[in-house]
Specification:
Number of domains: 2
Strand order of the largest sheet: 3-4-5-6-9-10-11-12-13
CATH architecture of the largest domain: Alpha-Beta Barrel
Largest sheet: 9 strands, mixed
Shape: elongated
Order of helices and strands: EHHHEEEEEEEHEHEHEHHEHEHH
Amino acid sequence: MDESKQPLIGLNREQLGQELQSVGVPAKQARMRVNQLWHWLYIRGVDDFDEMLNIGKDLRTELRQKYTIGHPEIVEEQISADGTRKWLLRFPPRGAGAPVEIETVYIPETDRGTLCVSSQVGCSLTCTFCHTGTQKMVRNLTAEEILGQIMLARHRLGDFLGMDSDPGIIAPLEGRKISNVVMMGMGEPLFNFENVKQALLIALDNDGLCLSRRRITLSTSGVVPGIYRTGEEVKVMLAISLHATRDELRDVLVPINRKYPLEKLIEACRAYPGLSNARRITFEYVMLKGVNDSLRDARELVELLAGIPAKINLIPFNPWPGTQYECSEWKTIEKFAAYLNDKGLPAPIRTPRGRDILAACGQLKSESKKLLAKQDLPLVEG
């Protein structure tokens, strides 16, 4: 990727129109040209201006000189025995920074294909059960870098329309390998709200990547102001990384609870717009042996979420080197789930995926810290 050129991926339609006018496209033509570029970028997924066949050669030359549509560099690709794929991706420096690396995971299932996307390099939250939380925060990802993960995965999986297809065809909604996107990778999405918002609104565009709001889920550890903004400005599905029903325990497991305690978090969840039995908030609950897996915890969970259209995603703890926690016994998890289901709270037990390549929930951790250390460069906070 040429660092001297400005990326086009990640610009919204208005910004793209402004850039086109800056290279001489008349204002009256800008909207048509934006639509053409949008088609090539997000429906065809091209990464070469010469493939944009309905754009004149002179304009393609102008665009090539000033802009880039490259994708992140794949440092490593791992494929699990269960078909899960994990990519270690490298992005070029931003300003005076250094190259950074993040991880993106694709999980194929019989009825869907889910891409787990990162929003930050590292994480500042230090949740004690999470491997990603042991890596210091380096920086936010840009809208381009967030979208770039989706674009690269679609390329690797053959999920874009072929060059031999009719240019007028819109990408099909059925049969996609990537049908769902979850903002559950590295980082806290609501600490990078503007870039996440821009990337998701582009992904939702009906004439581009065309993802459905019901098939994009943003997961947060409980950044209450961002939950309100997400409901008003993005309107995608919401997942809460809950893991405890009492403040004293959640303060330890999810330290941001000290700033936004359960009372404020649950209040924001109740106010999330558009909730119904068909549009529930997912509450993620990692099962930790002897920590949060008792029937008392299950009863308190029912009481805490009373009246909220909710689903409890029970996650068997995925071990990682150096962790102090153990996964709950399977019979304990089943008993916990049965209690919730009996009380009318759907509580599926998530099947661990990609454990053999450290691609499961809470296991993502890039090598950016090592990369920066090798270059004797500092971590950048925020």
